[in-house]
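Handoff note, outgoing to incoming analyst
You'll be picking up this chain. Sequence as last confirmed:
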Amino acid sequence: MNRVKLAVVGVGALGQHHARILSTMPDVHLVGVVDSREQQGRQIAAKHGTQWFASPAQILPLVQGVIIAVPTIFHQDVGLPFLEAGIAVLMEKPLAHSLQAAQTLQRMAVFRRSILQVGHVERFNPAFELLQEKIERPLYIRAQRLSPYTFRSTDIGVVHDLMIHDIDLVLALTGDSIVSVDTFGAVTFGPHEDMAVARLKTSSGIIADITASRMSPVAERTIQVFSTNGCVTADLNQRTVSRWQPVAPLAANPSLVHDIIAATPDPTTLKNEVFQKWITNETLQASSVDALTAELTDFVRCIRTDGRPRVSGEDAVRALEVADRILAGIAKWSWQDKLPNRDAAKVA
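Most recent structure output, in case you need it:
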């Protein structure tokens, strides 16, 4: 089998991991890495047995696909020539710095029939995959994504940096459009928001509360879903999934609770039995499969089969449309100014 010829453009904090993984995949030929910083580019290229190129234009004629991990502001400029040439692109999230730029990339991919995959890597997190298996119809979703300030991705705020992951997960879980958005945000270092809270309501009535912060002393990535068959929580860091649901008789007949109370001499003792007798709990450990490797494997599959990526350009544009509405509705409170920005819209 011929190996797929790939390259990585931008080998900084994340791009170097793409290069590392691709260099170990037996069905991939890592043609080279591209980085404007010669020392960084040569170092990563030497480490993974490939070549360094100074510009994307140099490597464009040599590859079937490219992973782009440059700062978000450059996504459109770097990605467009590859898509125009019919070369498959895996663009790190968010797809672009603006909705208009993202739509331009997506339109070019459609026009040239190029594969456009976007790096919403949480879709490949085994804990999220397991959560999807355990729920039926979602009714309420609560997502928390918190981290300390890393001084990376300072060209974008926390909505495009972190919250975009959970926007994508909510859209994937519900398959719905968003009909209303309520938001709040805060700035620590500036100029962009470092904390944001959003409440989304979908066309079928599902509510999703999403919190993202890069000013937390501890890291947390969790998603909780109340659905028609109970409550499921996934810890995306620890890769554990817990499910709570009423026992079968209670699920079939909620009025049974009155019989339980009537048959108990001292009803105050019932609360000690809830999670032993009436609500079942299981905690599962998800697979240890590396999500970034799974994402790259999906990209290679798409190139070989001309298949649809799990996270397409269309999916990423939908997520950015919601992110734009969240940003439009954020009244940012600044630690420096002490007052909210009264000119911002309250609701998108």
